[in-house]
Automatic annotation (TrEMBL):
Annotated transmembrane regions: none
Start and end residues of each C2H2-type domain: 75-102, 103-130, 131-157, 158-185, 186-213, 214-241, 242-269, 270-297, 298-325, 326-353
PROSITE patterns (UniProt xref): ZINC_FINGER_C2H2_1 (PS00028), ZINC_FINGER_C2H2_2 (PS50157)
Domain of life: Eukaryota
Listed name of the protein: C2H2-type domain-containing protein
GO cellular component: nucleus
Length: 390
């Protein structure tokens, strides 16, 4: 760090009297360290005002502590036990603990501990990117190039000893450790929910604020996350990169494919603790549980009717708006529900996919008949009462 300290000479501040309590002076001081610091102070005092000279006199009286190196007096930080051989490095370090940010950006007002931090920040305003990757040519405004090169080399120097997982950055390791410790330091002030990462909290806050910063340029629909927008764009592009190996059906999302595979395997990992019914998705189980609890969290603002599912509310709202987004390509008739359109198209195709297991009669609609009057009104024979169709 010594080269960085030298380039910020004019901006160095001495340890204040309040900071003197953080170090202790021993009887024996190192002449080597004293001489070096004295030469630096004498050099800086040239051309300075009397006020500056008084401030540097305070520096000369800074208490020192006998270090572990023979013949050397070291500056020891009692906050974090870090040791410095020079007063300048110690002064800058103590400023971090005192949270003194003396270097301010004239453009946005953000402040930094050192001029080097300010200079790196200024590149965000100027667009300067002096560090370039020799492999891919990507440039950076700060010293992130070292971390970037690990993408090409595959180096992951930060390893968690408990699970053996490695990371390219130290902060990624720190975030991963919270999975093992259960620590969630970032808490939502609106609902109290906690998160392991600050970015996750920022994304969560959009639920409360209603902010949706990522907008589709094709249809104008907005999303809270960038990845949601990327997934949505596949609808417009017609991309379905996830294909089922059993039936060949393709999907826009990997989660849809995983759910599809459960149909083939018969797996239903999400079980209702009340009735034992299984489901392929957790959100379907959540909706199902509302049948037992009676909770209907989705309410129509027009008529006050409530629903257990948001999709049910969306369909209901079309009654008030008159929207019928599903159109028959054969006759042009419009419908509020996709399932209504599917049933309608069978009148054109003549398809009758549901067959009575008792008499073999086929129907275009899958229905359970429970009452004689219903059977008569629908021209169903009485023996079809309470029968299941397949």
């Amino acid at each position: 760090l010594e080269p960085e300290h030298q380039q910020f000479k004019e901006n160095q501040l001495c340890v204040s009297q309040d900071e003197e309590q953080l170090v202790q002076k021993q009887d024996t001081d190192s002449p080597l360290v004293e001489n070096r610091d004295q030469e630096e102070i004498d050099s800086e005092n040239q051309g300075k005002t009397r006020d500056d000279q008084k401030q540097h006199e305070i520096c000369q009286t800074t208490k020192q502590q006998k270090g572990t190196l023979p013949g050397h007096s070291l500056y020891s930080c009692e906050v974090c036990d870090k040791i410095f051989s020079g007063q300048k490095g110690f002064t800058i370090h103590m400023r971090n603990h005192m949270r003194e940010k003396t270097h301010g950006c004239t453009t946005c007002g953000k402040r930094y501990y050192s001029r080097s931090g300010l200079n790196l920040h200024m590149r965000a305003h100027t667009g300067e990117k002096p560090f370039t990757c020799a492999t891919c040519g990507k440039s950076y405004g700060s010293r992130c190039l070292t971390r970037h090169t690990r993408i090409h080399t595959g180096e992951k120097p930060f390893t968690y000893i408990s699970c053996g997982k490695s990371f390219t950055q130290k902060r990624h390791l720190a975030t991963h450790m919270r999975i093992h410790t259960g620590e969630k330091p970032f808490t939502c002030i609106s609902c109290g929910k906690s998160f392991t990462q600050k970015t996750h909290l920022a994304t969560h806050m959009r639920i409360h604020t209603g902010e949706k910063p990522f907008t589709c340029i094709s249809c104008g629909k907005s999303f809270t996350r960038k990845r949601y927008l990327a997934t949505h764009m596949r609808i417009h592009k017609g991309e379905k990169p996830f294909t089922c190996i059993s039936c060949g059906k393709s999907f826009t999302e990997n989660s849809y494919l995983a759910t599809r595979m459960m149909i083939h395997t018969g797996e239903k990992p999400f079980l209702c603790m009340t009735c034992g019914e299984g489901f392929t998705k957790r959100q379907i189980l959540t909706s199902h549980m509302r049948i037992h609890t009676g909770v209907k969290p989705f309410t129509c603002i027009s008529c006050g009717k409530s629903f257990t599912k948001k999709c049910s509310l969306d369909i209901h709202m079309r009654i008030h708006t008159g929207e019928k987004p599903f159109t028959c390509i054969s006759c042009g008739k419009n419908f509020t529900k996709k399932c209504s359109l599917t049933i309608h198209t069978r009148t054109h195709t003549g398809e009758k996919p549901f067959t009575c297991i008792s008499c073999g009669k086929s129907f275009s609609i899958k229905i359970l008949v429970f009452a004689p009057w219903f059977a008569i009104s629908r021209s169903f024979p009485p023996q079809h009462n309470s029968l299941r169709f397949f």
